Amino acid sequence: MPILPKKKSKKQQTADARRKRRDAEPQKAATFFETSQAVSFGIFLLMAFLIIVICFLGQSPAGPPITPKQVAKVRIVADFPFSFESKLETERARQQRRQRVLPRYRLDQKPFQEFSTAIDGLNSALETELMPELANLPRNEWPPVIDQFTATYGAETGLTVSADDLAILLDKTTPEERASLLREGSLALRDVMHDGVFEQPASATTSMDGSLLVPMVVIGGRGDNIQSEEEAARLLNINLAGLGDDLSLSRALYRIFQKGLKPNLEYDVETTESIKEQAAAGVEPVHVVFLQGQVIVEPGNIVSLEQVEAVAAYREQLTKSAEIVWGFNATLVHRSVMTIVLMLCGILFMQTVFSLNGRSNRRFGLIATVLIINLLLLRVIQQFGETSFFGGNSSLLAMLPFAAPVALGAIVMAIMVGPRPAALITIAVSALHSLMWGGAIDSFLVSLLGGMVAIYFAREVRLRGKLMRASLASGLVVALVAAFLGFLNELPPITVGQQVLTAIGAGLVTGVIVIGLLPIMEHIFKYTTDITLLELTDFNHPLLRKLQMDAPGTYHHSLMVANLAERAANEVGANALLCRATSLYHDIGKTVKPEYFTENQHEGYNPHDELTPAMSALIIKSHVKEGVDMAKQHKLPDIFIDIIRQHHGTTLIKYFYSKACNRQQQTVLPLQSGTSNPPFERPEDVDESTFRYEGPKPEFLESAIIFFADAVEAASRSLKKVTPQSVEELVDSIFSARLDDGQLDNAPVTVAQIRKVRDSFCFTLLNMLHSRVQYPKDDVAKKKRGQSASPVPMQETQSAIHAQNPSGKRTAV
């Protein structure tokens, strides 16, 4: 196959120069912004400025907020001596002062008074109720009656007296003696409970003599005579034993009066708390002093609440320092320099890894915008830690680093541009995120891992569900790392669980943000993702439905072009989905006047027979402009519009150009034969540009593939006999003619790619245009039906269809 273009004639060169001048004007501004180094430098400066402002301006030189009960990642050293009032230490001192305040109790005489009243009532009941009943009974019949009395009296008064003790009291005393003993017992109980009886604590301190030491103050009483229940019971027993010589009677009296021995000290909460607060208010604020060079936080150690307070005070001192103006300090300068270094590395990476065609200001601007958006979200998350709500909650602070959407930029770039720019932006986001959190290496590695996992799962995302899968996978990986680091640092399980759930939630939220962000980025930077391309291949799209209904022949032609272009794109490494999707729409302009195109003509009628060649060419060419207008009206991506414009390049409509030349030759003949009729036109007056498409020529690989696929598919329908040789000759002739015509002058296509596209077309055409064997005749059916039963072979049918309309023979129109 010849691939080198032939030398053009002067006329062709003049026409080409005229077209180039016409096409250059609208593209001049776009080319400037796309390739200008001044624009690139401006984007670089703006991006550097925004990164520094977003990531580091206003951030304390002491670094981001540290999390209590977490392992410190960075060392914080005091650059100057400072002191601050420690609320923690002051509160600790006040709490100690509160603990020194003895509890206040009040004597409650109500329990003794109620018991004394019950004893008086018991004495009266014995004399008026029980003794008259017992007087007529022998002593051996007393116990049941006494049992019945004690049960009834206990139920009425709440005083439970043993029947045996009551029997001893009745048996060994007279009424006068009983009254005296009960009165003396009440007085003994009153004396024991006068200064207070307290309930013995489970763990009590004893003095050298064995007495209990209970720190308390009795309001209005004598603190040295306060007794525990055990001590009071012992003293009561001694006092009651002195009331008589009968041991059994003394024991019975003790058991009766022991029922009234109860703690009678009531804790005075209000008075005690008031005294505690008065004592705490007298504590002077505690000031903590740090010397210059003293370490506030040491990396690798668990951060204490005192260190969190000290770092917060250090930040406040830094903010008030005269050395800081508008947030500029040595730390900011250092991080700004690191940012510039990181950006220069990124520029060198782009210049080294990306091809010349992959370097554009549009791509650079997209990378910068996505990076800025990602960093802005990271800074917003970090700033939550500065608020009082988060700053006072160690659990929330521990969750913040894992709530950052570190994979946002990676997923957006992987879908819109590819894995290499996505890897670049992942490294940048991870490094800057690490600097924002104090330069910890583990923060960098966790962010980098999350971004790379997202890129791996988002390489060929064509459905939004798979996009969510990529973001969720990133969140799960970060969650696993968070769990590992949490258990390694011996964090509380609940804190580890919160970090894991936060990482997973951040992954899901990242996916939702990407879904909303992608259409905006596509519209601003004129990129078309595979997700959008796949959606546009839906045959229910209004334009494709219109193509099916109004121009079915063109619709079938578009399907065949899509098949040709898709396979060829796979062979040369182009975007196969882009080729397929744009091929379906490349001829939508034919729906305006479908009957003027051969594939939509029926019954042998051709409206071009009634038109001049120039008018026919004008109608044929108009389908490009009308297709562009329809694409804009339906808001198709710009790349679809570009391919609609370029799918014919500036090729010549040979059929009508040849027809015009033949007509002019016929009009010249009468003049040459000596007749007086003037010629209609001279052959040299036929303007070739009238019969050429307006262009532009193909400008990228996918456009070039569709450019050839459209011509090859159209021409293949005119083949009378489909053989490998005829197909190859047809394809070679089309490729040679268009290369000679300079149609690929603006396309970045190599000779090797052209050969692969050519071979792919030959293979696909042979499969598309295959013929079928002729079916054997059925003599029996022929006799029954009176006609031949063998169908016409497909190849013969196609030849017959083309024979019906020889004037409308399919060419590269």
UniProtKB/TrEMBL annotation:
InterPro entries registered for this protein in UniProt: HD/PDEase_dom, HD_domain, HDIG_dom, Metal-dep_PHydrolase_7TM_extra, Metal-dep_PHydrolase_7TM_intra, PgpH_phosphodiesterase
Bilayer-crossing regions: 38-57, 337-358, 364-382, 394-417, 437-458, 470-488, 500-520
Protein's UniProt name: HD domain-containing protein
NCBIfam families named among the record's database cross-references: HDIG
Superkingdom field: Bacteria
SUPFAM superfamilies attached to this UniProt entry: HD-domain/PDEase-like
Biased composition (Polar residues): 787-813
Region (Disordered) location: 1-26, 777-813
Listed Basic residues bias regions: 1-11
Keyword annotations: Membrane, Transmembrane, Transmembrane helix
Domain HD, first and last residues per copy: 554-715
